[in-house]
Amino acid sequence: MASDDIDPAETPLAEWVDRLAQAKGAPGGGAACGVMTGIAAGLLGMVAAYTADDLEARRAEERLSDKRRLAMRAAEEDGVRSAAFGAALAMEQGPDRERAVREATVDALSSVLDVGRIAASLLEEVRLLADIGNPHVEADLRVAVEALRAALEGTNHTARADLDLLSRHRAPDDDLDPQVADVERDLVDLAEARAECTRIVAGWSSE
């Protein structure tokens, strides 16, 4: 872990949020999306744990434990990438800075899309627990979906901003077109996951 970053899984919550509020950018929005994904996974895990008499719920609890750890690891990694991203932007103008900004932006895109993919993977657990989850913790399930929707929306905003920055620092021979195309496809997938969260929430609102 970079010396200018802190691990959200190992840092007291208040300290991590205080660091988020500083003009450092590490952690930043992508790491915050990772933490929101971890919160969603944690709440879903709680719903599964309260549904202990169901074999599928117990299996979901195990999967969600793994996904929660993945989300927190992705949040930490995004903070590390953000620190490198900030360092590139702080360089003096010139070809070296342009190259460093391109490389750091590509890394930042990869990092935040990792967060988004973990978040999207939680939808299968949402569908399952919406069907079999203990009704006494339905409110927690709803909070989990709202946190998940926020994480997906946040990854979209962050990735779009990174793409915009990358477009302003492209070079004719940078060979980044295939990676940009992959990012656009990933964003379509995340948009579909985000839309499903919205449909779930809308269904609850109509009850």
Give the SSE layout.
Elements (H helix, E strand, L loop, with lengths): L12 H8 L8 H21 L5 H35 L5 H27 L1 H10 L5 H30 L9 H29 L2
Helix pairs in contact: 2-3, 2-4, 2-6, 3-4, 3-5, 4-6, 4-7, 6-7
Model description:
The protein has a single domain (13-205), classed as Four Helix Bundle (Hemerythrin (Met), subunit A) (Up-down Bundle), CATH 1.20.120.680. It contains seven helices and no strands. The protein has helices at residues 13-20, 29-49, 55-89, 95-121, 123-132, 138-167, 177-205. It is mostly helical and 207 residues long. Helix 2 (29-49) packs antiparallel against helix 6, helix 3 runs antiparallel to helix 4 and helix 4 packs parallel to helix 7.
Q: How many runs of DSSP E, i.e. beta strands?
A: 0
Q: How confident overall, as mean pLDDT? A: 90
Bulk shape: elongated
Second CATH tier, the architecture:
Up-down Bundle
Kindly report the CATH topology: Four Helix Bundle (Hemerythrin (Met), subunit A)
Quickly count the helices.
Answer: 7
Q: Quaternary arrangement of the chains shown?
A: single chain
> Helices and strands: which structural class?
mainly alpha
Q: Write down the domain tally.
A: 1
CATH superfamily: Formiminotetrahydrofolate cyclodeaminase monomer, up-and-down helical bundle
- Note the beta-strand portion: under 5%
Helical fraction equals over 70%
Name of the CATH class: Mainly Alpha
Unreliable stretches covering 5 or more consecutive residues: none
Tell me the series of helices and strands, N- to C-terminal: HHHHHHH
Largest sheet: none
Please tell me how large the radius of gyration is: 18 Å
Q: How far apart are the first and last residues' alpha carbons, in Å? A: 46 Å
